[in-house]
Amino acid sequence: MSSAENQDSPAPPADGKKVFKRRGFQIFGLGLQDVIQFFFSGNASLAIIILILICFFLAKEAFLFFPDHHKDLKSYRQSGQEFVGFISEEVKAHTDLYSTANIAYYAEVNRTSGKEDTILRTYRTVLANVENRSAKTWNRLERELDALEDVVDDLEDHDAEDEEDRAEIAKLTKEKNRLEALTQPLRDKLRKEVNTIIEWEETWDLGVGADLPAEEDIAKIREAVLFEAYPDAEDEHPFIEEMKSVSKEKKAVVAEELAEFKETTKAMQAAIRPLKDLERELKKPADENKKEITSFSTAPQRRDAWLKGAEATDDPDEKARMRAKAEEVVIEEPDYEKINQVFYDSIAKHATLAAPLEVEMKNLYEQLPAPTEVETKSAKENLKRAAVFYERFQDRMVSNRKQIKEWRHDASISVPESVSAFLFGRDWTTNSSWHDFYGLLPLFTGSLLISLIALTVAVPFSIAAAVYVNQLASFREQSMVKPAIEFIGAIPSVVLGFFGILVFGEALRNLSQLEWLQWFPGFPMAERLTILNAGLLLAFMAVPTIFTLTEDALNNVPQAFTENSLAMGATKLQTVFRVVVPTSLSGIIAAVLLGFGRIIGETMVVLLVAGNKIKIPDFTEGLGVIAQPAHTMTGIIAQELGEVDSGSLHWRALFMVGMVLFVISLLVNFTAQKVLKKFQRI
Amino acid sequence: MSDQESEETLSPEHSSVTTSAQQPDTADIVIEVDDVNFSYVKGTEVLRDITMDIRKGEVTALIGPSGCGKSTLLRCINRMNDLIPTAAITKGEIRILDTDIYDPKVDPIELRKHVGMVFQKYNPFPQSIYENVAFGLRIQGIKKKPILDEAVERSLKLAGLWEEVKDRLDSSGLGLSGGQQQRLCIARTVAVEPKIVLMDEPCSALDPISTTIIEELITQLKEEFTIVIVTHNMQQATRVSDKTAYFYLGELIEMDETIKIFNSPSRKETEDYISGRFG
Ligand SMILES: Nc1ncnc2c1ncn2[C@@H]1O[C@H](COP(=O)(O)OP(=O)(O)OP(=O)(O)O)[C@@H](O)[C@H]1O
Ligand SMILES: [Mg+2]
Fold first, then answer.
1. Mean of the pLDDT values across residues A527-535?
2. Contact between A190 and A230 (Cβ < 8 Å)
3. Which structural domain range is residue A585 located in?
4. pLDDT attached to residue B11
């Protein structure tokens, strides 16, 4: 306020204090500028403080996982569960081999009855669809028919000669007539409905896939469905019966041919039985040991809880009762040597079972037909996979033989061992009655595979689109394409996931049935929710990120470069690919990295669409692995964190998964920045 | 390539256009600007009635106050203005070696291979020195290493840069000093052996020493190339050019021997501009 005066009257030259005085609004000696600055810097530092708090919280919860996990692993060993686990591993390796051989056998048996099987499958699916869609009328008719049947039964029980029954008979007959009058229009209505439904294309699409029978067979299937589409239809349509018997005959012929194959698979199944029995036998003591150990380790807490309860209550009786309970809690360390004796005793037994099993499986494996000796694609592929599984089985037997022999319940677990049990653990099993495993590998490979698919699709597409829009498109095209692509980013991911479940998954599976697409890895797909489905949707989600950042990078290329190149007589395309793109390469790489960060952190879509099967995808199928379902690091957190007790090992494990995600994101962002800086020379 | 041949075999026919040029002989006229009007946006002419001949082996300087259209004229000569959608020559022709360069049959891409351009802001591509110089040849589809090597060495020597960079041809062109970068751009331009080199204020972003080096370079280059240079530096014009053209508000006021323009210009406007009495 006083400053106004200063401005008006010329300041006396000698009075420096007055001339240089701060002017305008002030509080606590701070000018307006300072206050605004303080406000903004305050906001920025608040954000940083919150970030630090989040990191700290996450890190604290996550790293407490390791000591707990270590304890858990120790009890797994001390209870002898680990010993049983070795045997289970062997059984599992065997099951993989056996079931693959079995699938190959059945694929081969069905090789000549393909046509009939397709007809039967189509018939069943269409019939089910029809029943589904006409369910309302269908159920009503069914009810009335049941009632009618009851009445008819009742009528039969009554004797027309009997005086007493006559009145009853008259009543029942009336009811019967009423019901018959009722069912007839219902029957007509159902007939009409079925007729309409069967004309719908959807009825044939749903679940039938693109693998439809021939035209003339479809006409017959239609007829059979119409014939069968009643709650009281009795015999099957002759066409269907014929197909069934033909299929059966054909299979029988092949099965005879393949008798030896079948024997082999059966023998394989039988060979493992003794080992499986041993596994089952040993599971019981291991389970009991585990309980004992758990009860020992939780005993002090239980006693404290009773004592605390006793303190809290005023009722002297209650107090005494609780004190007594506390006294009852035994804190006695189990005699590990003793409780594990049963396992040490069965080492020899295991050896006597394992050696002949190995020999027998070797023989049986050699008796399996070679992939070249079978005809169907599925049988060939599965026999090839069987070779891999056989190798794994052998390796497993060899390595476990040693481990079982040297097993000690009191061997210590080193820190690297416990850490790698998490980072490289092959199982993520929770809420199990046996033992919970927290191995990151299934989730990590799931996330990685999905991201890789998403990147391989999104990167070329987005970069090409960005180059085109930025460099070659006309202004009109630019103003249409850019907002469209950027709009993708505005779609909520849960909506995309929904779309993935309902529309895209089905469409993709139908597409995978097409004859001329069979070269594509993983086709035909049996499932709707797969790695491929999730990967493609995530690719779609990553497009705006990569597109926009790439476009920015291209925009950052100075106009002068383009001009220079054109002035040298380069064409527009030469300029784009020899000057503009190489110059913006670092920006493009950063765009891809950030796109990767976007993909690997995405939760909703993968949770809904990836199939959520917690298992390392089966890489013996080669690239076909993309047709399998998987679970992801983000998905598991979203799915399980809500249901676990806070502070439990499972809870901490989920935090640790979050930590791993956090570190990946951090690394990706850091690398992206480094790349940008390193090449930023213009 | 075929285009190049056709242009080379074009016999420079005698043209009937005569300006105030001293030499009546028109045999070595390379660029003929014939009564040209040019506008960026329809309706506003930026160049009006420009008529001038540029001769082989000479350096022609274009001078004039800012915004008078010097750069515009230069960019008309290699059709860089084509990149601006609305820009067009509205009257007259520009002929190079007797070919109307705005003829629909002329491919601007081919034309630019013969009419090189050096810009005010030196701009090597973010690639190695070698790749920068080889750029023009590579886009013409030349891949043979010996040919490229030879061309790179020759061009760098022409640009007076060879001795300074011959040991680090693979390092980035952006690691050079400003003057060196501009000479690298000159080497890049001359590597494709154009007939004409257009220079738009090539020294205005450089220090005096680099400027001197490039001026010397220009006097050497004129033996091989026809050079048109835009400059705001009067001394530079007198030092390097044979002819000088003075532009004012989109019109060519006067064009003559440099000595004559600077000593006894025939127009008052020119004299005012040169002597700095320019309002
Ligand atoms: N791309 C363009 N679109 C529209 N008008 C332009 C464009 N480029 C230049 N002009 C106009 O054309 C006129 C001539 O510009 P030009 O760049 O040729 O001048 P100049 O003589 O080279 O000036 P300077 O010495 O400052 O470089 C100016 O009035 C300018 O505003
Ligand atoms: Mg200019």
1. 91
2. yes
3. 441-681
4. 40
Per-residue pLDDT tens over the stretch B93-126: 999 988 999 999 999 999 999 999 999 888 899 8
The pLDDT value given to residue B278: 54
Domain with residue A610: its CATH number is: 1.10.3720.10
HSE, side-chain direction, 13 A CA sphere, residue A207: 12
Let me know how long chain A is. Answer: 682
Is A568's Cβ below 8 Å from some Cβ in B?
yes
More confident residue, A324 or B21: A324
Residue count of chain B: 279
> How large is the average pLDDT for residues A525-552?
92
User: Which residue among A560, A579, A681 places its CB closest to the CB of B119?
Assistant: A560
Closest C-alpha to A423, from A657, A663, A73: A657
Of B109, B126, B138, the CB nearest to A583: B126
Q: Is residue A613 part of a domain?
A: yes
B41 or A155: which carries more pLDDT confidence?
B41
Which phi and psi (to 5°) does residue A68 adopt? -65, -45
A583:B78 CB<8 A: no
Picking from A246, A267, A288, A211, the residue whose alpha carbon sits closest to that of residue A98 is A267
Question: How many CB atoms within 10 Å of residue A236?
Answer: 15
> Distances from the Cα of A67 to the Cαs of A62, A302, A418, B95, B104, in angstroms?
10, 21, 9, 85, 80
Residue ending a domain, among A12, A46, A63, is A63
Give the Å distances, CA to CA, from A640 to A181, A398, A643, B169, B269.
Answer: 56, 37, 6, 59, 86
Distance (Å, whole) CA A366 – CA A381: 17
Q: Is A583 an interface residue toward B (CB < 8 Å)?
A: yes
Distance CA A523, CA A512 (A): 5
Residue partners of B186: CB distance under 8 A and separation at least 6? B118, B158, B159, B197, B202, B214, B217, B221
Q: Does residue A447 have a pLDDT over 90?
A: yes
For residue A190, the model assigns a pLDDT of 87
The sheet with strand B99-100 has its strands ordered as B99-100, B88-96, B29-41, B44-55, B251-257, B243-248, B59-63, B226-230, B196-200, B115-118
Domain boundary among A46, A63, A80: A63
Residue B46: how many other CB atoms lie within 10 Å: 20
- Ligand 1 closest atom vs CA B72: 18
Q: Which residues in chain B come in under a pLDDT of 50?
A: 1-24, 279
Residues 6+ apart with CB under 8 A from A377: none
For residue B99, list its beta bridge partners. B96
Task: Count other C-beta atoms under 10 Å from residue A538's C-beta.
Answer: 29
Number of domains in chain A: 2
User: Quick check: B112 and A567 CB within 8 A?
Assistant: yes
Residue B61: strand pairing partners: B229, B244
**What distance separates the 2 farthest-apart alpha carbons in chain A?**
140
Q: Give the angle A344-A347-A353 at the CA atoms, nearest 5°.
A: 155
Q: Does A44 map to a domain?
A: yes
Distance B200 CA to ligand 2 centre (A): 7
Q: Does A582 fall in a domain?
A: yes
In this predicted structure, what is the pLDDT of residue A377?
86
CB–CB contacts below 8 A, A to B: 63
* pLDDT, tens digit, 9 for 90 and up, residues A596-625: 998 999 999 999 999 999 999 988 888 888
> What is residue A612's DSSP assignment?
-
Which among A566, A571, A579 is the nearest to B125, CB-wise? Answer: A579
**Cβ neighbours of residue A275 under 8 Å, at least 6 residues apart?**
A87, A90, A91, A94, A350, A353, A354, A357
Q: What are the DSSP E strand ranges found in A327-440?
A: 428-429, 437-438
Nearest residue CA, atom 5 of ligand 1?
Answer: B40
Report the mean per-residue pLDDT for chain B: 86
Q: What token pair was written down for A663?
A: 């570190």
Total Cβ atoms within 10 A of residue A164: 9
Instruction: Assess if residue A210 is contained within a domain.
Output: no
